Amino acid sequence: MDIADHIDATGLLCPLPVLKLRKRIGALAPGQLIELRADDPAAVVDVPHYCNESGHELVSLTEADGAQIYILRKAS
Known about the structure:
globular, alpha+beta
């Protein structure tokens, strides 16, 4: 996978992980991927909800080292 940008939002609480994601995904070209790492329990709800509202695709959600790793594809 060719990830265009990485965001480390570990230690940040809602709504900061999604706010950082929204700001950074805006700079990407349609179809590019961005990775968000977060450990806020609310992110499990907030990130998929953000994708549904914005049209971006949640490509994958995995867990590693106590954090969730989200891969999103920017909407075209």
